[in-house]
Amino acid sequence: MALLALRCYLKKKKENKTTLIEETEVKHVDKNMRVKENIVKGPHGKPESVVVSMEENCHVDDDIIRKKKELEAQKNMHASSSS
């Protein structure tokens, strides 16, 4: 009999609470650009040509932050709003 009463109490307690999950999405963007310039000299030491190379890196990280909140449900929602 005591186990039945405990089970009913726990079930009622569980029904009175609702869980609210709040999610926030965070994005981190990291952009890098590298420019490299090389001057190629000719046979007499004069600059013959210029070589320019560019590297571009882009990193994106996605994070999701979750927060749990427990709220107690109101059984007499209509009665409390009219009061």
Automatic annotation (TrEMBL):
One of its GO terms (biological process) is plant-type secondary cell wall biogenesis. PANTHER family: OS08G0108300 PROTEIN (PTHR35697), PTHR35697:SF11. This is Uncharacterized protein. It comes from Solanum tuberosum.
